[in-house]
Design a protein that fits this description.
143 residues; mainly alpha; 2 domains
């Protein structure tokens, strides 16, 4: 732009430049509304995740680990739900369901770490059973 201004010193060039500046919409105005919504949603999800994860910093031991898994799961689910909202499809609906099942499993498995021995084994087994059921339900959605 500065090169153009140095070259264009005549009044007609400056008038043409001013007319071009007035007719060219700013980049944000030309952005597809779906893309704008997706970007705004992703920015909000990232900010929420950062805040949720920061809240976990005050915790200790396994409670902190569970809190972090919950924050990760919430983020993953929110991203999948945003994609489904912006571009609704059967595939995106399955991705939402998959994200929920994965998050629930990861959180449940992390909660099992508080237990010892047979109780921990039973807890992990229960978490895997619930994950398997969730995955089976998702497969049924495909048919």
């Amino acid at each position: 732009m500065q090169k153009f201004l140095r070259i264009c010193a005549t009044a007609s060039c400056l008038v043409a430049l001013a007319a071009h500046a007035q007719t060219t919409p700013p980049p944000a105005a030309t952005m597809d509304p779906a893309v704008a919504e997706l970007k705004a949603g992703r920015d909000k999800i990232a900010a929420d995740y950062k805040a949720d994860k920061a809240a976990c910093d005050a915790m200790k031991d396994n409670a902190k680990d569970v809190c972090v898994e919950e924050a990760k799961g919430k983020e993953k689910i929110a991203k999948a739900e945003l994609d489904q909202k912006v571009r609704p499809s059967d595939s995106n609906a399955r991705k939402v369901a998959e994200a929920k099942v994965e998050a629930a499993y990861d959180i449940a498995k992390e909660k099992c770490d508080d237990q010892k021995g047979d109780a921990k084994s039973a807890c992990v087994k229960q978490a895997k059973a619930e994950e398997s059921k969730g995955k089976a339900d998702i497969k049924a959605m495909k048919k």
